[in-house]
Write a structure and sequence with these properties.
This protein has a single domain, classed as Roll (ph1033 like fold). Helix content is 26%, strand content 32%. It has 5 helices and 6 strands. Strands 2-5-4-3-1-6 form a 6-stranded mixed β-sheet. Strand 3 and strand 4 form a beta hairpin. The longest helix has 12 residues.
């Protein structure tokens, strides 16, 4: 099993929305590195840390798991959709998405400022490539974040 961090702006799609929906497709990724993770590396049953970004105090809020591996992001073909991409087509998809299922909220939100203060997390991609919306997380990083959320 692999571990991932997925970012979402709560004004677009919050963890509360996700818990209510129970499952969702993770569409709209338009960064090639994140797309490659989706297309090539993310597998069924991988665990996802759900992260609220682009807010005054960014934080990890919940857990999810992957329930469907990569498939073409069909929103990229819809001219009326905000994620439309002229260069993507059903015959030659440029973008992909996965489906994820909400598992649970963390016992306690873990704020970015706490993660920055933890020396054992100093090499976490979240701290070194903050723009990447989907990123791998090492098992030891995941375990420490879960421990932090339980305190």
């Amino acid at each position: 099993m692999n571990y991932w961090l997925f970012k979402s702006e709560p004004s677009d799609y919050s963890f509360e929305n996700f818990i209510s929906d129970k499952e969702t497709c993770w569409e709209g990724i338009r960064n090639y590195q994140a797309r490659n993770f989706i297309r090539d590396d993310i597998k069924i049953n991988d665990e996802v840390l759900f992260y609220h970004s682009n807010i005054s105090e960014p934080h990890l809020v919940g857990l999810a798991k992957v329930i469907r591996e990569a498939y073409p992001d069909h929103y990229s073909w819809n001219k009326e959709h905000k994620y439309y991409d002229l260069k993507s087509s059903p015959d030659n998809p440029r973008w992909f998405m996965v489906d994820i299922k909400a598992i649970k909220e963390l016992k306690r939100i873990v704020y970015l400022k706490e993660i920055k203060q933890e020396p054992k997390l100093s090499k976490m991609i979240l701290l070194n490539n903050s723009r990447l919306s989907i990123q791998p997380v090492k098992k030891c990083e995941r375990d420490l974040i879960i421990k932090m959320s339980n305190n």
